[in-house]
Amino acid sequence: MAGFLSRFFDKLKSWIAWSWTYLWAVWFILVMFVIYILRGPLKLTSMFLNTLTPKFYVALTGTSSLISGLILIFEWWYFKKYGTSFIEQVSLNHISPLLCGSDNTPETTTPTNTTQQQTIPDCKLWRNPLNLFRGSEYQRFQWATNKEPLTYYDMNLSAQDHQTFFTCEADAGKAEYEIMQMAWRERNPQARIKAAHEALEKNPECVPALILLAEEETTTILDSEKFLKQAYKIVEGNYKKTIPSQHMTPQQESVHRRDNNLVVYIKRRLAMCSRKLGKIKETIKMMKDLLKEFPMMNFNIHENLIECLLEAQLYSEVQTLLAKYDDISLPKSATICYTAALLKARAVADKFSPDIASKRGLSTAEMTAVEAIHRAVEFNPHVPKYLLEMKSLILPPEHVLKRGDSEALAYAFFHINHWKRVEGALNLLHCTWEGTFRMIPYPLEKGHLFYPYPTCTEATDRELLPTFHEVSVYPKKELPFFILFTAGLCSFTALLALLTHQYPEPMGVVVRTMLSWLYLPLSYILEKLEAILPANLLHQLSRI
């Protein structure tokens, strides 16, 4: 509240200074002239207001309250939808340039914008390494709740991924691949499945069609695993055939790269099937083999392996993996940061007590754990509310925005049980995570350990996440000044209307007294003007 008041008074000072600098002389002359011209009507107006009944004042204040209430409702709706005040936006974008001129605007705003572009990274979307199967998981949720778990924007991104990774230039003109190109663009799941079957009729060894059926047509993980094994058997043979000739021509190199992508994708999905079927040791072996065989593939397979190692409670291996991937030169993720915090918390969480810690202070190990939690919360501030069950979880999307609500959902959905398994870890998180925000400067001009928090996360997460989910927003947007102003105006006029209706005579006396007070300085100024200025000059001006 103090920060809001200080910013409000700073804006108010700047507005007053601007108005005083540019308009004080003009306004003074105009007001004096209008007062002189209207000195007769002003007297008549004061006499007219003295004869009004209390019902008029009730109607006046009630109408004012109604109008300001309607403005308040519109401002609130506009703020909820677009995140800004309509009156403020119109004032800054349309009225202010007309009054101030727009010549200096680019010169003052360009350096700031270029600085932000240099320091703040763009919002890049990443494939969720732990994404679920559409047929056997997302579709079952839809049958149970009659709600769409995936947005069209998210599914369209997946279609683009499949077109990029599962096809190459050599596939142009092949009937089955042309059908699959159309299948990925289809919005209706049944149309996609039908197109995949048509592609298999053209070519029984069309691997992308088998992948689509494994992802969308099957209703159990076992059925998905059967389709994926069939696809893997085909693509493994094709991949081995392309290894000797991969460097001969650009076309053969693109075929080899396509088969390489298919091998990695199918093998990881097979490992995820094993993970869902409870075959943890087999899953860990498959993930390690993938990282060893394809170390340069940027599919974030290490995050799948971290989740499997945590499920097997192989914390020493998790620490070894983090030592490799939690590097300053590598992109971070919620999985990396929060897993590092979990391992640090595991060493002290079972004995941690906030009462004892407040008396004796934090030990070195406890301080290390708290700092790791603060680091994780700064990277993605949305995760703790899901881990602490302050917000309800939904099925994660197929793509995530790092540091956004979508990534927080994806992480918490798969890792909340690992935090619950470590005794006292959630208690330590509950006691310490909010302290992170005292370390981060406001309004986020610069970050503490990472880049400043990006401003594009809310809009992107709203595209990625279904409408029935309430998107978590950070930092919380303060209510614009005009919403608070209209709310106060509406409340004040409504109170006046109520008081005038209940106590008409006293309120009438108060209004007449206030009007007489307002008229006193005006009459004083008029008398001074008549005494100073010549009568014929004022007469000629009044005629003009």
UniProtKB/TrEMBL annotation:
Domain of life from the UniProt record: Eukaryota
Membrane topology field: Multi-pass membrane protein
Regions crossing the membrane: 15-37, 57-79
Pfam families assigned to the protein according to its UniProt record, in alphabetical order: ST7
Subcellular location: Membrane
UniProt entry keywords in alphabetical sequence: Membrane, Transmembrane, Transmembrane helix
GO cellular component entries: membrane
Residue runs in coiled coils: none
Main location class: membrane
InterPro entries: ST7 (IPR007311), TPR-like_helical_dom_sf (IPR011990)
Family recorded in the similarity comment: Belongs to the ST7 family.
Protein name as annotated: Protein ST7 homolog
Organism: Patella caerulea
